Predict the 3D structure of the following.
Amino acid sequence: MKKATANKGSDGADRIRGVSAADAAERVSSALDKVIHERMRLGIVSALAANDKLSFSDLKSVLNASDGNISAHARKLEDAGYIVCEKSFSGRTPLTEYMLTDAGRDALQKYLDHMEALINAIKQP
Amino acid sequence: MKQETARREKEPTPSLHGRAADNLEYIRDAMQRSREFTAVPGYAGALMGVTAIGAGFIAETQTEPLFWLATWMIEALLAFLIGVLAMWQKSKMSDTALNSLPARKFALGFAPPIISGVILTALILYKGSPSLLPPVWITLYGVSVVTGGSYSVRPVPLMGWLFILTGAAATVARPELGNYFMIASFGFLHIVFGLVIGRKYGG
């Protein structure tokens, strides 16, 4: 279940046109999906979007983050329904793997649309 | 913590456009790194190991230093071609450019010790001490793998360190054992780590 939603790209652009940069910043900030707007969570979702699944240690290496950092942010993404976690064993070693859900992929796409809309809106005179 | 807050306050606030562009760049970078991360051509590394073992046994039968050198030069060229072909195939399969940022980072980290190796090889041959070549090659290749693979999966830099240790052992061992150290490192280390990377990281 998503905790927050982002506006579609064109909506985002419409909202930004004709307002000051400060107003636009305020509006964009309030419209953004706060769950994936955080840097580490955005990194986790982006890395998972490019792969079927990644293990906990893969994510740690890709994002150059600590155990606690990955663990805390992954839990928030799991709570939001954006990723799912699979626990198994590789031999005798516990293996934790993460996968992006459809909701997570959709949220990332909306976030990307929002960023692109923002850039396009500001480019226009 | 206070210093960090003060630093942030001093920094000019980035423009909205800049932040959006920065976020997009971050997403692209995270995707690219994770793709590269799992696209380490492990099985190609194992294949390089097999050819290195073959080259090692051929080189062992050579009595002329020139033929011994030629055997390893041909093997180096063959391994290079296997590596490039594997990277090209992986880049096609993962739909990323062969000159992607992580690939460039790998090349920039990998190349300097290899270039140093070529220079030292020329110097050692000029000085007439070819028995010094195995420890130099093994050690410098290890340094290349450590520096080039510093952003890759953990087994890659670990393999590099084992090359360095093998190179150190070859330095103090009897010169006639050089070929065996070459087989142990370029052959068996490549095969073992190649299979581990191939099985664990999908190819």
